[in-house]
Amino acid sequence: MTDILTHTEDGILTITLNRVAKKNSLTSAMYTAIADALDGAAADASVRVAVIQGHETIFSAGNDIGDFLNAPAPTAESPVIRFLRVISTFPKPLVAAVCGAAVGVGTTMLLHCDLVYAGDNAAFSLPFVNLGLCPEAGSSYLLPRLMGHQRAAEALLLGDPFTAETALEVGLINRIVPPAEVHALAHRQALRLAAKPLASLVTSKRLMKQELAAPVAERMAEETGLFGKMLREPAAKEALTAFMENRKPDFSNC
Ligand code: COA
Questions:
Q1: CA 58 to ligand 1: nearest atom
Q2: Is 147 exposed, middle or buried (0-12, 13-18, 19+ CB in 10 A)?
Q3: Model pTM score
Q4: What is the pLDDT of residues 72-99, one digit of tens each?
Q5: Atom 14 of ligand 1: nearest residue by CA position
């Protein structure tokens, strides 16, 4: 599908989010395409590294808001939940290149990547509460551990966007470069990883994530249940409809 481009060369699978007119917001079909590509890369011995990137101006505006309103509540088998499961358990190194806005799952997916390079135009935001929702992708577990409760509260409760500098300071990203250089840098680092012994990479990554695997999976399951329930409640309906109607939400009755 053209909203997701995949390319494999030199042992690197590159996945490009390519729905720029809709700010690379992610539809069910896009989640499925990414999960299929990652599953294929995990099983293919000739692929050693995966890279996920957007456009120089936009990484991703998160879940497609229309899908939030129309798709059935997420279950373990939903495309988005499969995508989160696949990305959070991908056994090989995963590199992300982020320019522009990274909203919602555009930011939370980075918690599951190994190396993240960002443009100085990157802006990270987690507006779940503003949408009447709750965190997903294990972010309610991983973000406070990464940045401390108070900073996580600014990001998750106030929904305040944070800059590439803050993301670097708290350890969400590895380096900031001009937007025009981000994809090339991610590719160079992927090439360096691809030249290393695959078994060592996979074993090292598994060991590094061993303690987190079970609690993250457990938290993601809990978040999925709550998120699905909240999607059907008046606050989310109001917030999502307000976005589609290009107006401010009114939570006075929520
Ligand atoms: N789902 C569906 N469509 C989206 C979208 C989303 N998450 N984000 C942006 N779009 C669409 C807009 O509706 C608009 O479509 P149109 O041209 O047909 O009217 C187009 O993408 C451009 O978006 P726009 O808001 O005009 O771009 P911008 O540069 O002013 O702002 C963002 C970019 C990312 C800051 C802004 O689009 C935004 O906040 N999006 C919603 C993010 C969000 O809440 N995601 C859910 C997270 S849980």
A1: 34
A2: buried
A3: 0.97
A4: 888 888 999 999 999 999 999 999 999 9
A5: 22
